[in-house]
Amino acid sequence: MAPVYGRWEASLQPKNQTLPDIAEEDTLRAQCYALLARLLAAPPSVETLSSVGEIKGDASPLGQAMSALAAAARKSTPEAISREYHDLFIGLGKGEMLPYGSYYLTGFLHEKPLADLRGDMATLGIARSPGVSEPEDHIAAVCEMMCGLITGAFGRQVPVAEQRRFFDLHLGRWAPQFFKDLQATKSAAFYMPVGLIGQLFMDVESEAFAMAA
User: Fold this and answer.
1) Does the pLDDT of residue 4 top 80, yes or no?
2) Fewer Cβ close by (within 10 Å): the C or N end of the chain?
3) What's the Rg (C-alpha) of the chain?
4) SS3 sequence, 57-93?
């Protein structure tokens, strides 16, 4: 699937900027972040679900999880996934999960981790897109920001050291636990392989950043 940039926009991005090509492994990283962002931002549309159903995994653990997600997409309906998404993340009052960094790191919403993220967003030239009302530390939003840092969607391609710092501060400290919790929820069916993909991908990113240090 192509990277999706629907929720956040570059506040400082030059107009008509031509971005350089990126390495294949970085393209794959960006696509994985984009996939997680799209599926966790809202229930997938018919078109998105069709695209997910065509994903081809390989023999690696992450590849097998991708294949499981594709199989789940082929046997699911948008209506069923929409109900599942509602139960998981919205609910009557609140869903089974609160997918926000501040909550996972402090037990409360709108705390210092959100302020820290907003500060880094301002430095990197990332602004909230019009119409987005939820806090910026939503798991989908931070995954989309990582995608943009890799591809240069926010005006420039960010060096690996800066990517690592952003990841460590705003994803690495809480997203692995979020993805484990997602797999364990009673409502997760389609979203169970999404949780596994997220958990495995966070591990891959952590290991890759450690090797690049």
Assistant:
1) no
2) C
3) 16
4) CCCCHHHHHHHHHHHHHHHCCHHHHHHHHHHHHCCCC
C-beta neighbour count of 7 within 10 angstroms? 21
Q: What is the DSSP string of 144-207?
A: HHHHHHHHTTTSSPPPHHHHHHHHHHHTTTTHHHHHHHHHHSTT-STHHHHHHHHHHHHHHHHH
Does residue 31 surpass a pLDDT of 90?
A: yes
State how many domains the chain has.
1
Residue 55 DSSP class? -
Structure confidence by residue, pLDDT tens digits, 102-129: 999 999 999 999 999 999 999 998 988 8
- CATH number of the CATH domain containing 77: 1.10.3480.10
- Domain of residue 135, residue span: 23-212
Name the amino acid, one letter, at 112.
K
Look at residues 150, 148, 213, 207 and name the one whose alpha carbon lies nearest to residue 176: 207
Neighbours of 18 (CB within 10 A): 6
Q: Bridge partners of 9?
A: 127
Q: Classify residue 141: in a domain, yes or no.
A: yes
**For the chain, what's the residue count?**
213
Average the pLDDT over 7-19 and give the result.
48
